[in-house]
Amino acid sequence: MLNKKLENYNIILASGSPRRQQFFKDLDIDVDIKLKPVDEVYPIHLKHAEISNYLAELKAKAFKTELQPQDILITSDTIVWHNNTAMGKPKDKTEAFNMLKSYSNTTHDVISSVCFTTASHTKTLYNVTKVTFKTLTDAEINYYIDTYKPYDKAGAYGIQEWIGQIAVTQIEGSYFNVMGLPTHLIYSTLNDLI
Q: Measured between alpha carbons, how far apart are the two ends of the chain, in Å?
């Protein structure tokens, strides 16, 4: 449906994430995948969605000078915000364990920001989903880390994996946002941009 509306535009997705790429296929939106290395460092004073907004915009800046009038660049970033701290991708098993243990019997925010950039305009939006975990045992945490190795995932887990099935007791907001992309925002924003 949206693909027909976008036929005169070139949608560029700057993401190496297979999940994000699949979301665009599922939305029936044709995209060109283009990647540029970006050092994902943000100023320490930023909080909550300011962090993911900053990183999504930082990823877009790498492409800004080469965008053509028909190009729409989409960049995004997802963080887990818990105990007033941004949980990034865990460096090792200990860090992954500590992150997951901290979610036990609590609620945290998953924040995804999406930056839409054209040759003349930038628009950044974000979405917040509240995720509640049951009380996790150390054995459950260790099993998940050893089996699924969630080192490439913000906050050390993928909700679509085993941990999501056994640990998540409540979600307030978009499930797809927790997977890494607020698809409803992509759809509505591209509809409005054209």
A: 13
